[in-house]
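tool_log.txt
---
The assistant was asked to compare two proteins side by side. It first ran the structure predictor on the initial sequence, then on the second. Raw inputs and outputs are pasted verbatim so the downstream comparison step can read them without reformatting.
(1)
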Amino acid sequence: MAKQVTEMLKGVLEGIVLAILSGRPAHGYEITAWLREQGFSDIAEGTIYALLVRVERRGLVDVEKVPSEKGPPRKVYSLNAHGREYLEEFWRTWSFLTERLQQLHQGGKQT
């Protein structure tokens, strides 16, 4: 089952990270730690950092460099207006998919 969870997670991880950032700004390590606390123990920091670079390039987040006690400044990501619109679309798509999957799970019956 772990492989299946990993594969499914790849498809929704961007939405999950944006949802986290909709609550508060965070840096990559904080996001990774939170995901691990929620049971996503196989998430690699590198995966999250690569995803953050992609959403930054697409203009979905704003980035602020803040001083760090341990080394160079950290990039703190926050969801901007474009990112909020994208996240709203993600949730609409998620709802559509989960409704259809639930129908399939119930033998194709309409709910």
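(2)
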Amino acid sequence: MDNSAVQRVKQRYGIVGNCEALNRAIEIALKIAPVDLSVLVVGENGVGKESFPRIIHDHSLRKNKKYFAVNCGAIPEGTIDSELFGHEKGAFTGAVDQREGYFAAANGGTLFLDEVGELPLQTQARLLRVLETGEYIRVGSSEVRKTDVRIVAATNVNMEKAIAEGKFREDLYYRLNTVSIAVPALRERGDDAALLFRKFALDMSEKYKMPAVRLTPEAQRMLVSYSWPGNVRQLKNLAENMSVTAEEREITPEVLSRYLPSESHSKQIVMVGEPAKDTHSFEAEREILYQILFDLRREVNELKRYVSEQRNGSDHAAADCVAKPNSLILEDQDHTVKFAEDGAQDLAYWEAEEVKDDEPAKPADGNVPAAETDTGKAKMPQSLDDLERDMIKRALDMSNGRRKVAADQLGISERTLYRKIKEYGLE
């Protein structure tokens, strides 16, 4: 293609640079413009992808029709279908009136879908149908409508990776990617960074009537060698910032270094190797918390199984469970099990013999146990709850109602003791 046509496009759309990859992208845009095919513009954030859909539209047969640019990543997932395809009155909460979407408004023209990789899968299916047949249905309607729209899409997403992860439809990708235009990153454009800096500095000088900042040769080399993760957008911000705040109008490497962020080499997704000693690792904390939760759940399940076996066991198993009342099972707030020692010298052991229905069990030392009824007959507790209640009552009696002392004797917290007292009606 004639190089003069590329230069005219650069002047018209304010594109600065002589990079071969940039010139090639403009040539492709001019060649594909008259042909009604879908175009996918790919490149990093801030490289200027939004200029190419405008170039394509203005040099196409649709140049006298409408042009709409839609940022798909800025529209909430719940309303993206309504924005693109329209909706009927009452189709959803808040739909107080009928609305036509961008596909209807741009009929006959060009629709630029920026950040198309952010579209939900359901919307991707609707978009695929429009690209294949030109048909769409409004939200809340059953009427099929027709539209004649040329789609130019742009994305900074690695589409092959998104397809492999199931985040983007492969068939839609090939529909959009009939022709692909790759916009180079600023770090790949060589001396274009210095040309762009000069342009932005002159723009600020003309707009605000101030002397323009200039780079020394050493500062230019430093500027060109920088990685520019934010691309042209970052360079523009830098030039505008320096135009306003720099005391000197001639920018040396020392001055430039104060404005350039430190080079970042930590673009990897997964950290390799051990973190530095002073680095705070939230991933490690999360793993520890997960392990604690898993261990806690296992212990609670074991406790439930143990209690169930004790309560549903045979009479002989229940008698064995309470044979030594100095070991008491109590549930604490953190769902762990504590064994409280209650002073073996103050408690009588129940005999490990089978108790007859009409004869109370006798302690080994011959003393009458505290659980004696009004008739003078002692009855062995029939469950762990009964045993627990008796032990708490006994500890309160021994401490003259002082709950803190009783809690210390039982080996549980005061909060747990208060809850147990209320649960068993021991107020």
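---
observation on (2): Residues 265-281, 321-366, 368-381 have pLDDT under 50 and may be disordered. The longest strand covers residues 150-155.
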